[in-house]
Design goal:
This protein is α/β, with parallel strands linked by helices. The protein is built from 8 helices and 13 strands.
Length: 293
């Protein structure tokens, strides 16, 4: 397999009047990545900046904003597919709330340069999603076939639970993409530390893309903190802290990094430690109570 040129974008949240203007903004940012990346990663819920305008209000309540986004999801998804085709990129455009039967789920597409797409649903809901937005858990972990092998997507809070990524890695993923949307540094650091933990314990690459900026006009995207970054194993042949690339905190822009799957194969075969191989295959026994003597 050849090396993958990856771009992760810290997306600046801004008032956006309609789907056409969102598509133009997406074109602007993808134009900067064309020629520098083969696959690009955007944040969770980046397109929700459309919500207030689609709801016809400068300050809609959360439920109204969500309904407007769900109704617009097919048009937004078509704009994303058109952008991938136009720029000839593999595009993970973050996530969008979509209707699934009677429920609303948070879905992250991976779009090929010819417009084909497949989805990874978010499985673990944050308190905001579950208690205030009414977003439901979707389907379980998937892996995605690409020219660079199998990849995984773990949407924000899902990454905090090791089994989600582990299932993807055991199915063949060597890279996990993490679209995220966090409103505090506490939240972003939970995601960042989880990224680094998943990269360490699975000896894989993990890339994260956040929303950034304040949006007092949006009930859902009121505040956004984070930085785009790419992490790898903490082992020989990699940086001592596992950080392969990182953009500035809370500033919009691209973070580019070239990833070679052969480096993952090598460290899994001959690392100083073999976390990937040594992952416990059976549940650990229930802890007993130690007896002091």
């Amino acid at each position: 397999m050849t090396a993958l040129r990856l771009g992760a974008l810290a997306w600046p949240v801004e008032p956006t009047a309609d789907v056409a203007r969102f598509a133009a903004k997406l074109d602007h940012w993808l134009g900067q990545a064309a020629g520098r990346a083969d696959l690009v990663l955007l944040p969770e819920y980046a397109c929700v900046e459309l919500g207030p305008a689609l709801a016809g209000s400068t300050a809609p309540d959360e439920a109204t904003e969500l309904r407007a986004m769900v109704a617009a999801a097919p048009a937004v998804l078509e704009a994303m597919r058109a952008a991938a085709r136009r720029h000839g990129l593999w595009l993970q455009p973050g996530s969008l709330p979509m209707r699934q039967g009677d429920a609303v789920v948070n879905r992250a597409p991976l779009i090929a340069p010819d417009g084909r797409l497949a989805f990874q649903d978010k499985g673990m809901m944050t308190r905001f999603e579950a208690e205030r937005w009414g977003v439901s858990a979707g389907a379980g972990p998937q892996v995605f076939e690409t020219p660079w092998g199998l990849l995984g997507i773990s949407v924000c809070y899902d990454l905090g639970f090791p089994k989600h990524v582990r299932a993807q890695v055991e199915a063949g993923a060597w890279l996990v993409l993490v679209p995220t949307c966090t409103d505090t540094l506490h939240g972003f650091n939970r995601v960042r530390f989880s990224c680094q933990a998943r990269a360490l314990e699975n000896q894989c690459f993990v890339a994260v893309a956040p929303t950034v900026g304040d949006a007092p006009w949006s009930a859902a995207l009121d505040a956004n903190r984070g930085q785009a970054a790419v992490f790898g194993p903490v082992d020989r042949g990699f940086p001592e802290d596992g950080v392969l690339a990182a953009g500035p905190m809370d500033a919009p822009g691209w973070c580019f990094c070239t990833l070679d799957p052969a480096r993952i194969e090598a460290v899994r075969r001959d690392g100083a430690v073999l976390n990937h191989r040594d992952w416990p295959r059976a549940p650990l026994p229930r802890p007993g109570v130690a007896v002091f003597a």
